[in-house]
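Incident review: delayed structure delivery

Summary: a single-chain prediction request sat in the queue longer than the usual turnaround. Root cause was a stuck worker, restarted by the on-call engineer. No data loss occurred. The affected request and its eventual output are reproduced below so the record is complete for anyone auditing the incident later.

Affected input:
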Amino acid sequence: MRIALAQLTATTDPQENLALVSDFASRAAREGAELVVFPEATMCSFRKNPAKAAEPAGGPWASAVQALAAELGVVIAAGMFTTAPDGRVRNTLLVTDRDQVCYDKIHLFDALGQRESDRVAPGDRLVVAEVAGECLGLAICYDVRFPAQFTELARRGARAMLVCASWAPGPDKVHQWRTLVTARAMDSVSFVVAVDQAGPAEDGDLPTGVGHSMVVDPSGRVLLELGEQPELAVVDLDLALADLARERLPVPADDPSLYRIRW
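Output delivered after worker restart:
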């Protein structure tokens, strides 16, 4: 599978960000990508109240992304905000294909002085998306700190994980990002494609990103790592190698009954 990593810095304007998505996705399509992965909050950065941008999953922004993907002949995975029944929003990863798939972030970032849950309602289910005949597990940002999510996605058939992030800058944050992404690949014996917002932004105190989008193989080997600035990169992955790795190290097949799986 040929996958493009679209490391961008989202603005607070969904229409400006739609233009960025179009530019990155068009370039990726010209390079033969089947899947183009964008960061968390691609629709609108956290520097704007997400409630002002949120819309249903079938709303204008998501529909425009879906139409763009169909026009280019690619699948797009991009972070957006959707409406929640309690007046908050959901932090959603949209995956276009014949059938639109959405994953709502389960683990909210109530840490380091921030409370994502004040504005965002948590998701309540794990999602494995089928893209070009391949099963991909979906995760968003803070989810990467929770190994059980990734091992369970692997048990459900995912051979690669997509992690879309707006990873807040700070002391040791790049080191933590690299370590966590690599560990989740090893925990689940899967490929991990982790795409962060570029950054950090020069203004505002809410997260954009640190860059360093990565691809890691099931053994924990880093196949690709970007820098800090906006960038597009394309990588070819043979996801069947995850099956071979699991034959040698069958971690996802181990009995999970010791743990209470909620989702």
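Verification: The chain has one domain: 2-248.
Action items: add queue-age alerting; document worker restart procedure.
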